Amino acid sequence: MTRIRPFRPGDEPALAEICLKTADAGADGTGVLDDDELWAEIFVLPYVVRHPELAFVVETDDERVVGYIVGAPETAAFEEWFRTEWWPRHSARWPQPETQPEAEASRQDGILRYAYGRRGGAEPYGDAYPAHLHIDLLPEAQGRGLGRLLIATFADALRAQGVTGLHLVASADNAGAIAFYPRVGFAPLPSHDGVQAFGMSLV
User: Which of 2, 5, 20, 82 is 20 to 30 Å apart from 57, CA to CA?
Assistant: First the structure.
């Protein structure tokens, strides 16, 4: 029987694989970047290092991990930690891209610019919705209510820490995600081109 359980050490390879297989606006991101490992180093692995208590996984009856939710209770503090501690330990593999017109930048260059630009206080939703999350499910785990259950589990863990609001940002190309989040209690927020942000009050 499929269940939700807390993250535990040793789950990291499975989480990295799920991140990759859902990285391209919900579709398989294998080969989209020059280095497939970059996705996880930015979007999932730092979270289980910094906030393992807020990481939960979907596990099948044969003990395969097929989905996860990770996040941070205080976005500004997490982003500053990412900038000063996490990224300097890992970024040697991916030098900062040279400045060039956006139209000429590769997909990997764009993601690296995002990683190098992360810093505390840059996120406009952080005051009203201080926490943020990343959630991914393999296709076999989708459409079964597991995403809703992961978000409820994560929100309860945040409430237990006294966190008052939660946000997330989805690619504007990810139609499934944009349709899903309002159904589980998120409200659309003003957003940059190419993305759609959502917020949820936890009080």
Answer: 82
**DSSP code of residue 55:** -
Residue 110 CB partners (closer than 8 Å, separation 6+) = 102
- Provide the Cα torsion 158, 187, 16, 40; round to 10°: -100
CA–CA dist 125, 122 (Å, integer): 9
DSSP string, 5-22: EE--TT-HHHHHHHHHHT
CA 178, distance to chain mean position in Å, is 15
Which structure tokens are listed for 179? Answer: 């349709």
- pLDDT tens-digit readout, 128-157: 999 999 999 999 999 899 999 999 999 999
Q: What is the C-alpha to C-alpha distance for residues 24 and 35, in angstroms, rounded to an integer?
A: 14
Can you read off the two tokens belonging to residue 76?
Answer: 């500004």
